[in-house]
Task: structure prediction
Amino acid sequence: MGARKFAKAMQLLIDSGYLDFKDSYQSGAECEVMETDNPTVVIVVADPVHPKTITHYLGCRGFARQEVLTELEDNLDAVFETRKFTD
Result:
């Protein structure tokens, strides 16, 4: 990964307020709606100062800041071009 991609990804994370997301959106009270048979997105930020892992089961819907998290996932996907590995 190049320095440009790293800087862009970190800016996206910071702009989204990634530290304010819960660690998990998979089941339970955070999911207003729960649908089965969906993929899971895991974002791992290996920053020694502010490490964070966010696990988002895409069938978990209706939680606070869902749109922000989904946008972050899509934007990180575009930066790292991961869609070509998952489609």
About this structure: Residues 66-80 form the longest helix (15 residues). The chain has a mean pLDDT of 93.
